[in-house]
From TrEMBL:
<dbReference type="InterPro" id="IPR007370">
    <property type="entry name" value="Glu_cys_ligase"/>
</dbReference>
<dbReference type="Pfam" id="PF04262">
    <property type="entry name" value="Glu_cys_ligase"/>
</dbReference>
<dbReference type="InterPro" id="IPR014746">
    <property type="entry name" value="Gln_synth/guanido_kin_cat_dom"/>
</dbReference>
<keyword id="KW-0436">Ligase</keyword>
<dbReference type="GO" id="GO:0006750">
    <property type="term" value="P:glutathione biosynthetic process"/>
</dbReference>
<comment type="pathway">
    <text>Sulfur metabolism; glutathione biosynthesis; glutathione from L-cysteine and L-glutamate: step 1/2.</text>
</comment>
<dbReference type="GO" id="GO:0004357">
    <property type="term" value="F:glutamate-cysteine ligase activity"/>
</dbReference>
<protein>
    <recommendedName>
        <fullName>Glutamate--cysteine ligase</fullName>
        <ecNumber>6.3.2.2</ecNumber>
    </recommendedName>
</protein>
<keyword id="KW-0547">Nucleotide-binding</keyword>
<dbReference type="GO" id="GO:0046872">
    <property type="term" value="F:metal ion binding"/>
</dbReference>
<dbReference type="GO" id="GO:0005524">
    <property type="term" value="F:ATP binding"/>
</dbReference>
<dbReference type="GO" id="GO:0005829">
    <property type="term" value="C:cytosol"/>
</dbReference>
<dbReference type="InterPro" id="IPR006334">
    <property type="entry name" value="Glut_cys_ligase"/>
</dbReference>
<keyword id="KW-0067">ATP-binding</keyword>
<feature type="domain" description="Glutamate--cysteine ligase">
    <location>
        <begin position="10"/>
        <end position="379"/>
    </location>
</feature>
<comment type="similarity">
    <text>Belongs to the glutamate--cysteine ligase type 1 family. Type 1 subfamily.</text>
</comment>
<keyword id="KW-0317">Glutathione biosynthesis</keyword>
C-alpha cells in the first residue's frame, strides 16, 4: 500500500472525518430494449403514458426509439438508488401492455436496419438536434449498435472531502481545480484496473447472430442463432461494441482536465474524410450534425467520463470548463440478466469500494505506451477473461489475471472495511469475499453463469434472453406501483408532455440556424 493511500485512509478513518464517506452521491442509468412477447424488437413508438422522452427526468430513450433509459435521482446510499430504480421499472411495466423489457446488454434478434427506428424527441429544435445526432450515429456505426444496453454508474465524493485532502496535503490552487484533478486521478486509476470489473461483472459472452449484420468477426458458433467466445466476459465491451476505426485513434488523455477538454474539443472540430463523404444533408434532410470525428463530445464512447450537471443550453465540455468535475460516470457495466433491474446491491457495494480506492490511491500520469497497455489488458479480459492462466501486462512485465486481481482486492480490502464501519454492517466486506471467490474460480463469474444458462435453453441467446425477460416481467407485475407512486409518475409524465409542447411553441428560428449556433458556441470559456 503506497504512502498516499495509507495517509488518506488514516485521515478518513478518524471519528471526525469518517462521516464524509456517507455524503457522496450515487445514481444509476439503466438502458433496456422494449421487445414483444415473442422477444422481437418492439415496433411501437415510445409510450405516451411514460411521458416525453425529451423532458422526462427519469424515463427517456437512448439511441433507438425502443431503447428505454431509466435515470434514478442521486442518493447518498446506493441501496436507496436501487430502490428508486426498481420503482421506475414497476411503473414502466404498468404502462407497457404486453411488451417486455429485454434482460440482456446485447440486443434481441434484430430486424433489417431499415426497420430499426431512431429515437424521436418531437419537432422542437433541441428535439431535432437529439434526433439528427442519432441519425449520424446510425450512419457511422449502424443501427444495430443503437440497440446495445448498459448500466451507467454515477459516483461522487462530497466536496468537503476533497477540501479536507487539499488542506491536509498542502496543495495550493483553487478548490475547484483540486477537485477536478482528483477526479481525473481517479479516472487514470480506473483505466489501470477496470479490466478487473469486466472479469468480475461482465455478462455478455454470447450474442445473437443477427447482431453481426454480416460483419467480419472471430466468434465461434454456439448454435444456429448464437455466436460466442469460450472465455469471453463482455463482448459488449469488445471491438464488436460501440467502436469504429475513427474512435480507435482517440486514446484517452486524462492527465489533466485541460488534456481531456482539449482532446475532445479537437475531435469535435476535426474533419474526418470518411464522414465527409456522407455529407451533412441528403435530399435536403439532415443525416448528421457534422462531418467531424465527433458530432458532439458525448459521441466519445469511453468506459468512464468526468461529468458536471449541465445547465439549460449548455454543452458538456462547457460545464466542465466553467465549474469543474462534479462526478464520474462509469459506463462499462453490462446489464446483469439475473437481476430484474440489471444490477444488484452486492455489485454496487464493491463498486463503491473500488472507486474509492481509485480516488485515494496515488495516480501518476499515463504515457502513450501505458495507455495502450491498459487498453490491451481490457481487451484481453473482455474476450478471454476466463481463460486459465491468462496473462496481462503490468509495468512492462507479465502477470496472471488471477494474481493481479488478488493483489488489487487485498489493497481494496481496508477501504471496504472502512466503508462498513461508516455505513454499519458488513455488506462491503461480504461483497469483497464474493469477488475473491470469483478470482479463484472462473465458474462463479456472471459470464460463466450465462454460459450455463444458455445450455439450459438450447444454447440459444434469444431463448435465454426471452426467458429472463419474462421472469423479470412477472417479478415487477407482482409488485405494481402504489397509489402514491402511480400519482407521482403520472404527474411527471404529464408535466414532461406539457414541457415538450411549450418548448415546441416557443421555438424561434430555423433548425439550420439552431445547429449553426450550437456548433459555433465556444466549447471552453473562462
Amino acid at each position: 500500500m503506497n504512502s498516499q493511500l495509507t495517509s488518506r485512509l488514516a485521515l478518513l478513518a478518524t471519528d471526525e472525518h469518517l462521516p464524509l464517506l456517507g455524503q457522496g452521491l450515487r445514481g444509476i442509468e439503466r438502458e433496456t430494449l422494449r421487445v414483444t412477447s415473442k422477444g422481437e424488437l418492439a415496433r411501437t413508438p415510445h409510450p405516451v403514458a411514460l411521458g416525453s422522452a425529451l423532458t422526462h427526468p427519469q424515463i427517456t430513450t437512448d439511441y433507438a426509439e425502443t431503447l428505454l433509459e431509466f435515470i434514478t435521482p442521486a442518493e447518498s446510499d446506493i441501496a436507496l438508488t436501487l430502490d428508486k430504480l426498481e420503482t421506475i421499472h414497476r411503473v414502466a411495466y404498468s404502462k407497457l401492455g404486453d411488451e417486455l423489457l429485454w434482460s440482456e446488454s446485447m440486443p434481441c434478434p434484430l430486424p433489417p436496419e431499415e426497420d430499426i427506428e431512431i429515437a424521436w424527441y418531437g419537432k422542437s429544435n433541441i428535439g431535432m438536434l437529439k434526433h439528427v445526432y442519432r441519425r449520424g450515429l446510425a450512419l457511422r456505426y449502424g443501427k444495430a449498435m443503437q440497440c446495445i444496453a448498459g448500466i451507467h454508474y454515477n459516483y461522487s465524493l462530497p466536496e468537503s472531502l476533497w477540501q479536507l485532502l487539499q488542506a491536509k496535503e498542502g496543495q495550493t490552487g483553487s478548490a475547484k481545480n483540486f477537485q477536478s484533478e482528483s477526479y481525473l486521478a481517479l479516472i487514470r486509476n480506473f483505466r489501470r484496473h477496470s479490466w478487473l470489473l469486466m472479469y468480475l461483472f461482465g455478462s455478455s459472452p454470447a450474442v445473437s447472430r443477427s447482431f453481426l449484420r454480416n460483419r467480419e468477426h472471430k466468434l465461434e458458433e454456439l448454435s444456429e442463432d448464437t455466436l460466442y467466445l469460450p472465455y469471453a466476459t463482455s463482448l459488449r465491451m469488445s471491438d464488436l461494441g460501440y467502436q469504429n476505426d475513427a474512435q480507435s485513434g482517440l486514446t484517452p488523455q486524462e492527465n489533466s482536465l485541460d488534456d481531456y477538454v482539449n482532446r475532445l474539443t479537437n475531435a469535435v472540430n476535426k474533419p474526418y474524410p470518411p464522414y465527409e463523404k456522407f455529407g451533412i444533408k441528403r435530399d435536403g434532410e439532415w443525416i448528421q450534425l457534422s462531418t467531424n470525428l465527433l458530432q458532439i463530445e458525448n459521441e466519445y464512447y469511453s468506459t468512464i467520463r468526468p461529468k458536471r450537471v449541465i445547465r439549460s443550453g449548455e454543452r458538456a465540455i462547457q460545464a466542465l470548463c466553467a465549474r469543474g468535475v462534479q462526478y464520474v460516470e462509469i459506463r462499462c457495466l453490462d446489464v446483469s440478466p439475473f437481476d430484474p433491474v440489471g444490477v444488484n446491491l452486492e455489485t454496487a457495494r464493491f463498486l463503491d469500494a473500488f472507486l474509492l480506492f481509485c480516488a485515494l490511491e496515488d495516480s501518476p500520469a499515463i504515457d502513450a505506451d501505458q495507455s495502450l497497455a491498459y487498453a490491451r489488458n481490457f481487451a484481453a479480459t473482455v474476450k478471454d477473461g476466463r481463460c486459465p492462466g491468462l496473462k496481462l501486462e503490468r509495468e512492462g512485465q507479465e502477470i496472471t489475471l488471477e494474481a493481479w486481481g488478488e493483489e488489487l482486492l487485498q489493497r481494496i480490502q481496508p477501504i471496504a472495511a472502512m466503508l462498513d464501519t461508516q455505513h454499519g454492517g458488513t455488506e462491503h466486506t461480504v461483497s469483497m469475499d464474493r469477488q475473491k471467490a470469483k478470482l479463484a474460480n472462473p465458474e462463479l463469474t456472471p459470464s460463466a453463469e450465462v454460459m450455463r444458462a444458455l445450455a439450459q435453453h438450447g444454447n440459444s441467446f434469444a431463448r435465454f434472453g426471452l426467458h429472463q425477460s419474462e421472469e423479470h416481467a412477472r417479478y415487477f407485475k407482482a409488485k405494481p406501483p402504489t397509489a402514491a407512486e402511480h400519482a407521482y409518475f403520472e404527474q411527471l409524465a404529464n408535466d414532461s408532455l406539457s414541457e415538450q409542447l411549450a418548448i415546441e411553441k416557443e421555438d424561434r428560428g430555423s433548425f439550420d440556424d439552431f445547429v449553426a449556433a450550437y456548433k459555433d458556441s465556444k466549447l471552453c470559456q473562462p
